[in-house]
Amino acid sequence: MRTQSELALEESLVAQLVENGYSRVTIRDEDEMIANLKTQLEKYNNRTFTDAEFKLIFNHLTKTTNVFEKAKILRDKFSFKNADNETVYVSFLNMEHWCQNEYQITNQIAVDGKYKTRFDVTILVNGLPLVQVELKKRGLELREAFNQIDRYKKHAYSFGAGLFQYIQIFVISNGVNTKYFAPSKTPDFKFTFYWTDEKNRRISDLQAFAKEFLDKCHMSKMITRYTILHEGDKALMIMRPYQYFGVERIIERIKNSTKNGYIWHTTGSGKTITSFKASQILSRMPKVDKVVFCVDRVDLDYKTSLEFNAFSPGSVDSTDNTKKLVEQFADPNVKLIVTTIQKLNTAITREHHQKTMEVLKDKKVVFIFDECHRSQFGDTHKRIKAYFTNHQMFGFTGTPIFEKNSTSHAGKRETTAMLFDERLHDYVITDAIKDQNVLPFSVEYTGRYQYKDTSRANLDIDVHAIDTTELLESEERLNKIANYIIDIHNSKTYNRAFTGMFCISNVKTLIKYYDIFRKLKSEGRHDLRMATIFSYTANETPNEDSGEIPEDDLDFSNAKADIHTREVLDKYIAEYNKEFNTSYSTKDSKSFNDYYKNVAKRVIEKEIDILFVVNMFLTGFDSKKLNTLYVDKNLKYHGLIQAYSRTNRITGEKKSHGNIIVFRNLKQATDDAIELFSTLDAKETILIEPYEDYVIRFNVAVSALLNIVPTVSSVDSLITEEDELAFVRAYRELLRIKNSMSTFVDFSFDDLSMDAQTFADYGSKYLDLYQKTKTETKKESILDEVDFQLELIRRDEINVLYILRLLAQNRTGDEQSRKKRETEILNLVSSDPILSTKRELIEKFILENLPTASEEDLEKEYDEFLNAEKRIAFEQITEEENVNPELLQRAIDSIEFSGRFPTKTELVDTLNEKPSFRQRASIGERLLVKLRDFVGKFLER
Prior knowledge:
By secondary structure, the chain is α/β, with parallel strands linked by helices. The chain folds into five domains: 6-238, tt1808, chain A (Alpha-Beta Complex), CATH 3.90.1570.50; 241-427, P-loop containing nucleotide triphosphate hydrolases (Rossmann fold); 443-686, 3-Layer(aba) Sandwich (Rossmann fold), CATH 3.40.50.300; 691-792, Methane Monooxygenase Hydroxylase, Chain G, domain 1; 857-938, no CATH class. The strands form seven sheets. It has a seven-stranded parallel β-sheet with strand order 15-16-14-17-18-13-21, with helices on both faces. The protein has a six-stranded mixed β-sheet with strand order 1-4-5-6-7-8, with helices on both faces. The protein has a six-stranded parallel β-sheet with strand order 22-27-26-23-25-24, sandwiched between helices.
């Protein structure tokens, strides 16, 4: 039986949408779309527009090519004066009553962009294209539809009037798998989402998805209520299904009852966006007087306020002190407040605030608590409940407190449900990993375990019987662990493409570790950029039998300081100040708090390789570039999951899992935590396969590759694009497996059925095909839409200078050996997606300069050579194409600054003599190819 064609899939979808209540309309091109837009806007606004009036409206709609600004125009009204000098208001989308819009469905709209393009299925709301569906026939990869949309965004959606830049939701499907996503400046397939039902059961079949998600009212609701215009990034964000259901359940609770509730969404799944959207919607409800978002740490107060205001500027007034908080409570114009539970406690208990606060006692106040299991099991929570008589409370947590992981407070065990009533929605870690919203973990237990004898993880430290401080803090043990971390850190972090964190049991041991690392650095053993932060109050070490990770307080004004600990921390901060040109200290809470924020910023920006902590940063801290956690601390239940989850934020293809390297006997604790906070058989989902399984998978993938291309040279003999596509997919699968397994400490090509050189050689051919897609100018290719995932093949440790130094070190020995090594090194260049464009330059430098260049002056001599070659290449373009040098340089400067390449039309405008209309397209294409080649050789690093 033949598989369903793309056309049959398209017709089936259109039929389903007509059944959903959409009006089918035939629109063949942009002119017909504009005519339809006028008709639909007249129908929606219940008035007729003259041609002159519609021209004003159309000019307003098309005045910008910025997708983010167009999203704002869509949500706003437009006014103008008509011929009778009356003010006319035009609405483009009903934001309050989202079902009350005009809905149409069309397909195969044709656009003449770079290529003749036909869009599959377009949903029009009030005449504007707000949802675009791109289909691939059954059996093809969903990524190909995603890449097709990315290609359309570059050269089709902006064509003509750019009405397709009003798209708010993209949908991609191959019939059996269907996902949705919002427009993005930096497309990433990992930010495409399946729709689910309330129980997190995936709705992936296209017909089922169309019936549920593309229901007119639901689709409109997603655009009007559950799409966020992120002002910080100037980007659109659309909420995922579990976020949608979580917010909807809270809204229903407010509307229909006075009960409380809590949301269990696993750590790393985006609770900030969910809580923001819930807070925003609740604050607009007439029956709600105040929404108070409570956090329990100074840094989270700052971080959450920053994030909320990034979503919607001015939505949050950050509360610097309790007086400011009280003023916000008293101001009826301030509907949404972000504060700490400590400040809230002060506001309702201090006598001098009572006159202001008492007015609010009977007002409708909704409290939303971030990580509601922290700082809630105490008197403060009871005081808030007693003080506000007309309140409702909602908690968000990634790790609820159940009976099993509860601790005793004043002789009584309390759970999250006891404080917040029933659970309104849950989305556990297994759900998130299955949906690829967070990453799984690779947990390696290091010490005397039953590994194979040659395993590097067989570090000679005792992990089973370390219950004495003397053994735990022995110099021998700490030194072994420190040296082990130094040895494996680069492989764990892909040569520092990511960062690590080291969590340690207590401050005393942390200081010992930090001093060992400082000493080893001074001896030249490593060059890791380090930082640390910890509490310097006395008696801060927690009870490790508790699952809780206590939050170290950043406000020490009323705390008793440990003088020695404080002096040591100040010494470390002084070293930090010297390295990063800052001026922090522990002299007061503000300076220490600013140090905390600066450390957080530098970890996020990859300026710190390893951060040493006791408790701080183990909860509530998000960094996509943090992928490794070293653990010498007893963790259990929610504390363990919270700490591990610092590593599992998604970013790009290279980060396939979070690395957890454990120097304690935490295997049972890890199993117990996984069992408590997930579903049955969760270990297979949450923990990645052992190294031996990856070896088997790699070798199977090698066999599949060799069935297509038995030798490296046979890649050149592939006849059809379908054959080339098969090779690309087979080698890409090898890349994915190798990427995941390469962070294991035992990884070695010796275990695999393909050696490193052959793997790299096939990589060179893979890159050749990628380059073909970039330089092909005559026709579309099926390879255009393949995701080559170059991030997986890019070697972070390799740059031009690295290659040249290898070559310089190769100048000794017999000529045959030198030539062989030189070929191997240049093959390394060819297997790198950026360096491959520079191979010709490097070979020329080798021939002309390398024999006489000293290793010390290598970088300087290469830079001089590169600048000379760049001038020659630049002049060659200007002479061959008769280009104005000043205008061309301006275009190159713009590429260096913004990364944006000029259009073909803009390049034609740099010519000294303007070509005929017929010649413009071919000349513009030729100039663009030459400019891309120039940038690849001389600008990309």
